[in-house]
DNA sequence: TCCCAAGCTTACTTTTTTGTAAGTACTTCC
DNA sequence: GGAAGTACTTACAAAAAAGTAAGCTTGGGA
């Protein structure tokens, strides 16, 4: 329960460690969403692109590369034309995807709280 | 369990919605770490800065502003000199901080998996 | 008077991320 | 031959994020 109890390489609060590196691969604009999209089932590149709103082909390809390198997803290419590639979560990837979906659900369920908090903050700032 | 079952504003997979906005405030380089740092107890600015390795004063101040605006943290300023300011998680903030610490712990505990996956990926790429 | 403390802010620079658009490969079909 | 399909890649540009360093505030103490 306390990240600082982990060895140096595993402590996300320390900048120069592998855990921080991996954290930054998933806890960013696209990483978590791509992982989350794959939780339901294996998907093709275009299917991921369509599910993750706003992601460009460039960012999707880049994100998939990074996630594959970390061992979070597995890429299967079929020898057919047109090209057919499938992406699947690995065990590690599934564990992280579950956590991200839980995070998305929590944020999504409480979105009104955020909206009203922002309004309160903005109006208080305006009057100061 | 399925984010697409949420109303539009609450579905993180849709780009133009409040949930995505809030997600991007926490699931980024510094947001989750700052939230996670505050889970143990209320902290002053300098204490957060010291716990979150690698964060600059500029990025810490900026991140705290964003998190406060979203209603995830509360700032208490004391009328003393030198200035004394404390930051605390709100209820929402705590719910998110718990999820981030869980994520950090998972990543930290399995850091060897990532390291070896990366080696495998890199050596396979070199031989291709 | 000067220095110190903590919590920022500000101006400018650098780095990173993201966007845009075109291109590639290769088979199949018209 | 051209068009279509899919999964990227590439080159360049723009935007965003982050870094760096100096500065400000104000009371208290030497």
Provide a descriptive summary of the structure in words.
With 128 residues, chain A is mostly helical. Chain A has a domain at 30-112: Arc Repressor Mutant, subunit A. The first copy, chain A, contains 6 helices and 3 strands; from the N terminus they run ααβααββαα. A 3-stranded antiparallel sheet of chain A has the order 1-3-2. In chain A, a hairpin with a 5-residue loop joins strand 2 (73-78) and strand 3 (84-89). The longest helix of chain A has 19 residues, at 91-109. The first copy, chain A, starts with 17 loop residues before the first helix and ends with a helix. The model of chain A has no long low-confidence stretch (mean pLDDT 92). At the A-B interface, helix 1, helix 2, helix 5 and helix 6 of A face helix 1, helix 2, helix 5 and helix 6 of B. Chain B binds a DNA duplex (30 and 30 nucleotides) through helix 4.
């Amino acid at each position: 329960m306390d990240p600082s109890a982990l060895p140096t390489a595993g402590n996300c609060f320390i900048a120069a460690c592998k855990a921080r590196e991996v954290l930054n691969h998933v806890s960013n604009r696209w990483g978590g969403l791509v992982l989350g999209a794959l939780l339901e089932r294996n998907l093709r590149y275009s299917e991921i692109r369509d599910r993750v709103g706003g992601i460009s082909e460039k960012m999707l390809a880049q994100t998939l590369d990074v996630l594959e390198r970390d061992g979070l997803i597995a890429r299967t290419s079929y020898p057919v034309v047109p090209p057919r590639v499938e992406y699947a979560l690995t065990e590690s990837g599934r564990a992280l995807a579950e956590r991200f979906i839980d995070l998305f659900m929590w944020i999504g369920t409480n979105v009104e709280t955020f909206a009203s908090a922002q309004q309160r903050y903005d109006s208080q700032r305006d009057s100061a």
